[in-house]
Hints:
The structure holds two protein chains of two kinds.
Chain A: H1 3-15, E1 19-25, E2 28-33, H2 38-47, E3 55-63, E4 67-76, E5 81-90, H3 107-117, H4 130-133
Parallel strand pairs in A: 2-5
Antiparallel strand pairs in A: 1-2, 3-4, 4-5
Chain B: E1 13-17, E2 29-35, E3 38-45, H1 53-58, H2 66-69, H3 77-92, H4 98-126, H5 130-151, E4 160-161, E5 164-165, H6 173-196, H7 199-205, H8 213-218, H9 223-227, H10 235-238, H11 259-283, E6 302-310, E7 313-321, E8 329-333, H12 335-341, H13 343-346, H14 352-362, H15 366-370
Antiparallel strand pairs in B: 1-2, 2-3, 4-5, 6-7, 7-8
Helix pairs in contact in B: 3-4, 4-5, 4-11, 4-14, 5-6, 6-11, 11-14
Amino acid sequence: MSEESEGLRGIKERFGEALLAAEEADGELRLTVAAGRLTALCAYLRDEPILAFDYPADLTARDTGEQLILWYRLVSIAHNRTALLHVELSRENPAVASVTSIWPGLNWFERECFDLFGIRFPGHPDDGDPARMRILLPEDWEGHPFRRDYEPVFSGDPLHGPQERN
Amino acid sequence: MTLTTTEISSPGMTLNMGPQHPSTHGVLRLVVELDGEVIHSCRPVIGYLHRGLEKMMEARPYRQNVPFTDRLDYLASLNCNLAMAQAIERIGNVTVPERAQYIRVLLCELNRIASHLVFLGTFATDLGATTVFLYSFREREKVLDLLEAMTGARLTYNWIRAGGVAADLPEGFAEGVRAFLEEFRVALDENDRLLTGNRIFRARCEGVGVIPREMAIAYGASGPVARGSGIPYDIRRVAPYDVYDRMEFDVPVFSEGDCLARYCVRIEEMRQSARIILQCLRELPEGETTTKLPKIFKPPPGEAYSRTESPRGEFSVYLVSDGSPNPVRVHIRTPSFVHLGLLPALLPGVKVADVIAILGSLDTVLGEVDR
């Protein structure tokens, strides 16, 4: 058996009940994990030598209308392999533990997911302070524009931008 | 009379660099806490150029999204075009004619040279060597003339489209490129004599802003920043696209991790780009330059991800389709965004004057940071 399948087997053994989906396609590991086990799985993915996903390439989210899906893309520099990690969150109070302690490079990506989708990341250095979490939008912005139900509020004054300010 | 000395404790100072500061290369604001002239902590503030491009793209048919990408990394817009075009092709299962693939690689490498020449000029200017700017922009002008002859534009090309390229090479283009590369080789050697060995330049770069290998990996650094820290990570090599797998080129890697290493990577990369361009011209096959896409292009539901190596690093586009003519989600991973995220970890302990050198060596473009 190839090394890859060995890696996948190890993940399945360890996280069996927390994995909602696990497959290998086009040489890529695709996992869907329960939000509660995310940090444990991430630490395993990074530290297990046959996986060694030490490089955080990308993190984003999308709103399907029913739920929010987080989309982590990891790279193993040593094995030149990629992994895709999905976490499904409810649209009410979405929150998932921050993985910045595992991959500090995802710090700004998590801030972006908060800014645009309103997903909270407990454990993130700026969590709990919306003004510090906002990254692309002004710190006093209200709402999260990439949510399907977002309604922009126009102040009518171009100098004030799209939102009314007090 | 006796002199007494008293300890003067300074409460520290907060310094605002930018958003209107020439050395930040755009609208970047750095809030820096200083202890004397040593940086205690740094918080980059971005978003001044945020246009919500990802959101705008959701409201438009796939192919109309390519011009937006010109406004991301405006110094290398062809590379951005390619990433988006490639994502659209993947999601719609479109194959690109071979000739178009060669032309794309050729154009992207020309654009990479132009982009690195801007880096060279601005980086040297940041460090006080203003003359280099004139030489590097003289060379860049020639690349822009070539690209203008091809696309009609000098900055926002919108030339690489989903399915291929907008049109074939104009007459005399190959000769023009060859003539330029001849002169360019001389100009690069000239630059080596002018700048690379310059003592003042080296004193400002060597050992400054060292990004250790582990840090570069954990922070997701890519492109010349990663390769300047000893990581041989180049998407053109690790996950080749178009005809890069047929090209012979080296991936320059320097292990020092300082500003000089990043500078050397880019200088060497320009030489490698020239090699790739010559191979493209030599092997360019005859044939079509585009695959016609249907007027109303509706890709099947699904996701696509395209990774490309832009002059700044890993530039990726993520597309989600629900079967309608517009994408339901577009996400663009830009290298400059990640590299600015390095600053809070990189700057503490550094002197204020070195911030300019470090920022210049990361070669960020705020258009792609803020999107």
